[in-house]
Amino acid sequence: MPTYSYRCQACRKEFSAQMTIAEHDKKQVKCPKCESRKVRQQPSLFGVKTSKKS
Known about the structure:
The chain is of the alpha+beta class. It has one helix and three strands, in the order E-E-H-E.
C-alpha cells in the first residue's frame, strides 16, 4: 500500500498517510494535528525491492 506525504498549510505539520490509490483519488486528507483540510501533497522518494538479483 503506498504511503503519501503531506504538509498542512494551516499549521505547517508534515505527515504521512497510507492508503490505496483508489482511496487517494477519492479521499480528502485532513491534518492529524489541527484537522484542517488545507493540505498539500509533498514529493517523496521511494524504493523498489525485487526478488530477482541483477
